[in-house]
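Tutorial, part two.
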Amino acid sequence: MILSNNTILITGGSSGLGLELAKHFLQLNNKVIICSRSNKKLEEAKKLLPEVEIFQCDISAQEECEKLANWVEKNHPTCNVLINNAAIVHNTNFVTDAYMIDKSVAEIKTNLIAPITLSKLFIPILAQNTNPYIINVTSGLAYIPRTAYPIYNATKAGLHSFTQVLRNQLESSTITVTEVLFPVVDTPFHKGNAPKIAIGAEEAVNELFIGLKKGKPEIRIGKVEMLYKLSRFFPSFAYKIINQL
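Running the prediction step on this input gives:
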């Protein structure tokens, strides 16, 4: 991937990995647009990164995705990179949680349906520009589920599968489809309770950029590479390890 002179949209870009991605891309002379549900977080991100463009929307709603795509096409027609980064998680017990259905719907809409919807809406926009990319952010939990997250694992596994299919179906086009599988990263995503094995956001993004430079279709960050191999050859052992962390 050519890492400079792009126009990049990052969903969930107001904090955590999304904000770290925005910071790194801005340093490489890119135009960066971030979106988030929270206008307050967007304004805070704007104070940290004055060059960034912000747009408030809730991508869990289809009409909001359409509004975002229309706004980008009108105001930033040179957009050539879509990074589907936004995600939510509920650490809960599926059996005993009285609000499990609502939580499940929210996670599936945000983590899986939104990236699918945005990919469909943005393909015509990306295709008219040079060096077009769709980058889907998933997790090592796409390979082996962590039982504390009854729905999150499934959404990332679903996005992993969708990304493989999308890459194949866009093979004859100019659009490159890349998946980034992150390990546990110390971000606000964990609400101050990140596991001890979590790596820093800067370290994770630096490794991502190395993978992008090499043009890898699947970029496994940190110990995700080891988890991938364990899941293929020793799945029961991998399941035990991931759920003892």
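Residues 100-127 form the longest helix (28 residues). In part three we will examine how such features are distributed along the chain.
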